[in-house]
Amino acid sequence: MALRSDWSEENCPIRRSLDVLGDPWVLLIVRDVLHGRGRFDSLRSNLGISEAVLSRRLSAMVDAGLLARVEYDNGGRTRQAYVATEAAAELLPILQQLALWGERHTVTPEGGGHMAMVHRTCHTDTVQGEVCSGCGDTLRPEDMTWVKPWQDTVDDLVPAGYLKQP
Questions:
Q1: Burial level of 147, CB count in 10 A (0-12/13-18/19+)?
Q2: Which stretches make up the HTH hxlR-type domain (predicted)?
Q3: Which residue has the higher pLDDT, 141 or 57?
C-alpha cells in the first residue's frame, strides 16, 4: 500500500518534484553522492540506513534519473557505485538552502555547529545556494565541500588559514 498518492501526473511542478524528492532519504543520499560517497557501504554507514531501505531508494533514484550506476573493481570483484546525474547535481543549491534554513530556523543540538559550505576555488564559506558569496562563480558540486564540525575539522578538508568568511 502506498503511503501517499502518486503525484507524477500533477500539473503542479512542486507536487511532481515532491513525487521524486519527497522522501527525506532521497536528499540525504543525493548529498552524499554529490560529495563523493557513492558506494553502497559508504552510504549505508554514513547515513545509518538499513541495507533494504537503501537498496530500494537507490533503485528508485536510478529509475527517476537522479543517479546512475557505475562499475568499479573491488579487489578483483566488480561492484556498483552511484554517481549523480545532471538532475541530481542541480539539487546542490536546494541542499545548500536547506542547510542554511536549518541553521537559521532549527535548534542546533549540543556538539553541532555551523556547517561550512566551502567553495574550493576561492576557499569561501559561502552563504548562498547558486553562486559563491566570495567570488560570484556558479557553484558546482565538484567545487564544493561541506565541513561538518560534529564530524570533520576544517583542517581535515581545508588547509589551516585557508577558509575565508563572506
A1: buried
A2: 12-110
A3: 57
